[in-house]
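Posting this for the archive.
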Amino acid sequence: MAASRWRRIGLAALIAVVVLYGGFELGRASTGFSIVGLMLERLDLRRQVRSLSEENESLQHHVSVAEIGQRVDRQAQSGAQRMIGELQAETARQQQELQFYRGLVARQFGAGTLRVQELKIRAEEGRRFRVLITLVQATARDSVANGTVSFAIDGTRGGALVQLPLAVVEVNKRRELPFSLRYFQQIEVPIELPEKFRPASLQVEYRQGRGAEPSRQTFTWRVEGEPEIPVL
């Protein structure tokens, strides 16, 4: 009897608690409050926080890339300016050296002088040779010298003195070669000597323009690499 009474009391208490909680939830629902809505709102806020965090990381990455790009640009600009300065200094140095050498040449040969500074002969196959003529101009101004150069080879054949003009020995049978130089120019001339001809010297002739008087210089025939024949 007592047990039945306590069960009724417990059931009544449970019903009262349920009624009270239902009334509490009903009251909150009537004021717009919902547990499910709260959970959904929290989930949405978490998604927004996560999205904002990812966007913030992306913006920080772009800022870092932009800063690196700016540093690279500044370094490249600094390097370019340094290189330009070095090139300008090198150009100035070369101009000074050029003026110095031009002055030396002018003092040695006279201003406005065109001459053969060097002549080299290189042996090739058989009776073929290559003649290298270096023309230089000593001038105080940046003027260009235009003209033609030619040469003849003096020697012996069968005990007789013979002179072979350029058109006879030049591989392409040219009579003269053009030149155009401001300071110097090297002209290469491939030649082939006839059999039994023994060369002794070359007479180089060069002129500026068709109507000008030619200048001449004579060089001993000496092939590079061969021992020099002593003069008796």
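The CA atoms of residues 128 and 151 lie 16 Å apart. The chain is about 45% helix and 30% strand.
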